[in-house]
Amino acid sequence: MTTTPTTQQASSRSDETAPLPADDGARGAARRRWVPLATGLALVVLLACLPLLAISLPGVLPGPTYTPGTLQVLALALLVGALALSYHLLFGVAGLLSFGHALYFAVGVYGLAIVLDRTDLPLLPAACVVLVGGIAVAHVVGAISLRVTGISFAMVTLAFAQAGNVLVRRNPAGATGGEEGLALDTTHVPDVLVGVANTRNLYWLALAVLVVVYAIVLWVERSRAGHVAAATRENEMRVRVVGGRPYLVKLLVFVVAATLATAVGMAYLLLQSGAVPRVTSADFTLTLLVMVVLGGVGSRWGAVVGGVLYTLLDQRLGALAASEAIAGLPSVLRVPLSEPLFILGTLFVLVVLFLPGGIAGAAQRLAHRSGRNRDRQREVARDTIEESA
Amino acid sequence: MTEPILRVTNLRATVAGQQVVEDVTFDVPATGVTAVLGRNGVGKTSTLKALLGLYARTGEVTLAGERIDRLSTDRIVRRGVGYVPEDREVFAGLTVAENLRLAERDAAPRRELVADLFPDLVRRSAQRAGTLSGGQQQMVSLARALLNDNRLLLVDEPTKGLAPKIVGQVATALAEAAATAPVLLVEQNLEVIERLATTVVVIDAGRVVHTGDAAELLDDPDRIQRLLGVHTSENAA
Amino acid sequence: MSTIVLLLITGLGLGALYFLVASGLSLIYGLMGVLNFAHGSFLTLGAFAGWEVARRLGADSWGVFGLALVVGAAVGAAFAALTELLLVRRLYERHIEQVLVTVGLALATVALFEGTWGSDPEFIEGPAWLRGTTDVAGAPVPNDRFLAIGAAVLVLIGIVLFLRYTRFGLIIRAGVENRAMVTALGIDVRKAFTLVFAVGGAAAGLGGVLASQYFGYVSPHLGAQLLIFAFIVTVIGGLGSLTGAAVAAVLVAVLQQFANYYWGYGDLVVVLLLALVLLVRPSGLLGRRA
Ligand SMILES: Nc1ncnc2c1ncn2[C@@H]1O[C@H](COP(=O)(O)OP(=O)(O)OP(=O)(O)O)[C@@H](O)[C@H]1O
Ligand SMILES: [Mg+2]
Which region ranges are annotated with the description Disordered (chain A) (predicted)? Predict the structure, then answer.
């Protein structure tokens, strides 16, 4: 929302002065770099202040923003946004349709839970051990699954994730707690991250994770490897002809995305103070896919918005399902409306059918339509393209 | 001058995000063989595929006065267009008989004509098409187009990679086919063109660079050299 | 010895169920390039339809059980055909979007099944014979295994005959090889698309009724549970190959049973098998080279 006035101001200024085209171009480029950055920073500062404010959004949030219940939901939404962002790196940037991304998230969640449970390592060293483990798993699975492409790749990643799911549910040596899951052993977790009273610390942790993940994804996308990965997505043959190594680049992106998911998983464990087998399931990966497509494939902020929106919708629809209003309806309406996943699934189908490009695509089209002069239209389009490229 | 059977106006086509047919305009007369010439990779095959709707295209295409540029491939073909693709594209896992049966559209397909032209195929009807020689596969491909009563045949390099004797056989079959319907023929073999073509269309870099009478062009070796970069046999001799 | 026989026949029974799901998946993928995530829902709905029939008309009669099989298959076929007509067709040739639409449908329908029938398994009844066992070389083999195997063999024969001797079968076989050329012969392949969806849905619906006998319950997650292994079977067998699906279904299920019995991690062994096959033959056992 804050982008629009800034852009308007900037373009009206350039209209008034109408300097040399070269000058205008240089300033335009600088503006294109600074406007999103400033907007992002402002947004992060705003989000960081939320625990100190009492903002109420009835229907969206369960209570005022300083209450632990609301902060818990928001922190969850931020973490899921970060996870969706790591999936965006895989699917949106490299074009790798993986159905097994949940595996690496689960490595973070369960890995940290198990290490804290079984060893005397403090939190940070434990997290490092898990991260290394996550990188190793991603390397092995990625190296094998990237031998095939397209739909076969999707199925192979699905199969590996399923293996992880089976392993977790079988509870080998009592390590994972089977269907029950595993509670967080807080002995070696710093006190500031434990307990309802400290939810806002966990919220800040979640925000920090999102910011770091965003920065890394941005960095990878802008790097040489990111460009090669994007080129591979469009035309693998051409990349190979000009001497690129698509396999290695794809593996790199795969491992980075997986590592980010592992990191997010560890934060998730601290926030939820426990691990449940659902995070290892294929359905969980599918919901990530839903978020990214909902937000708009290829758009970074779209992925975050998709993740946040999905989580909030899921929470609120769950509350709606339990509400009096729904209970009174005839069963034809009550049954579907009391299933959040039914509504989300249907919404997803509708978006795929009628809203190509998801939320980001719609926003871009809207920006085009409402643009007052062509100059500004071009500006916004370039911003958005750059943003989503 | 009768109405042309096919009118192509400003045809453009893109494949995999790349424009492979830039701007093609030409007519196919209602009788005889119209040959499409051009160096390798200039977009001859793509032009035929765009006409058939196998590649996404824009522009105007009319078949006997009716617009066909918005129709799906199967509709266009059912309007009476036979297609013999560049690399035969027989169904390798299907038998010869099945390949032919699949192509039968008319209530009374011309099985006798095909059996007369290609007796070999009758003998091999139970053989898998994938195990046929290149020449035999070409016969299956031609037979699929000849089975039905078409208003126009699109034939793409039917003699590609065939031994001289088989080339003659294919040319004979094409002459036979041309007696029943006008043919748009992509061909590199100038002898075959000399024998069959009445009109020529030369394509370069996705555009038409020459149209005219076939005999006239073939009598002008310099022009051929310029348009196609090849020497005719007289020229070389 | 008797353990081995029991594991083998149980494995074959499970393989039969995998095949009933994988045959449709493989045909749909082969012809249309669509990976159908909603296939599990076809199976689940078929299973619930069969269960509703049995519940209303008396579960222990063979006539009702036969009817349940027919209804399960018909419901699966209708659901699948509608999926193709209403959702998949609109995204013609956009394979990723087609997969996404089936993903959304799978999520939504499983939730709907949960809302309608509850998320806990419903234990089922059937003709008494199905609950009994038959002695094979000293092993007491549950009878429902034989039923699943028999049904899968019949379906395999039926699909093979259909593909070989009907014009639609001819179109489907040709379309799996080269869809563009089929349209260039003047054939509207989209009719064949609806048809393979319906055939695949019928096999899955039938598989649903049989699977609920095999496992002893129906649940909204029955389909999803089998779908993942059916995917693995499809890839191992070679995408688009019906025979490949049959061979791989047996291979995967038997291996899984043995590994489960002797080691406890059959599902992991299956994934390792998949990895091995992909390393040695990325196109699957009987798949064409990409
Ligand atoms: N499916 C495709 N994908 C990518 N590029 C394509 C595709 N089809 C055609 N092209 C490109 O379009 C251009 C024209 O190809 P086309 O096959 O039409 O040439 P042609 O004139 O038939 O050549 P030839 O005489 O060698 O058969 C070529 O550069 C080719 O590489
Ligand atoms: Mg060509």
Answer: 1-25
Among all bound ligands, the one having the nearest atom to the CA of B206 is 1
- Dist CA A97 CA A101 (whole Å): 10
A158 touches chain C (CB under 8 A): yes
Residues of chain C in contact with residue B72, where contact means CB-CB under 8 angstroms, are 183, 188
Interface residue C137 vs chain B (CB under 8 A):
no
Is the minimum CB–CB distance between A143 and chain C shorter than 8 Å?
no
What token pair was written down for B95? 């038998």
pLDDT at B46: 94
Residue A26 banded pLDDT, cuts 50, 70, 90:
low
Q: d(Cα A98, Cα A162) in Å, to the nearest integer?
A: 12
Helix residue ranges, H only, C58-188: 62-83, 95-117, 128-131, 143-165, 167-177, 179-183
Do residues A134 and A111 lie in contact, with contact meaning Cβ atoms separated by under 8 Å?
yes
Domains of chain C from N-terminus onward: 2-280 (1.10.3470)
Report the chain C residue with the minimal C-alpha distance to residue A149.
C282
Cβ atoms within 10 Å, residue B123: 10
Following DSSP, what letter does each residue of B177-212 receive, concatenated?
A: HHHHS-EEEE---HHHHHHHEEEEEEEETTEEEEEE
Best residue in A97, A288, A314, A349 to probe C by mutation, most C CBs within 10 Å? A349
Evaluate if residue C123 carries a pLDDT over 60: yes
Q: Which domains does chain B have, with CATH numbers?
A: 6-236 (3.40.50.300)
d(CA B149, CA B141): 15
Q: DSSP letter for A197, please.
A: G
**pLDDT, tens digit, for every residue of C244-272?**
999 999 999 999 999 999 988 888 899 88
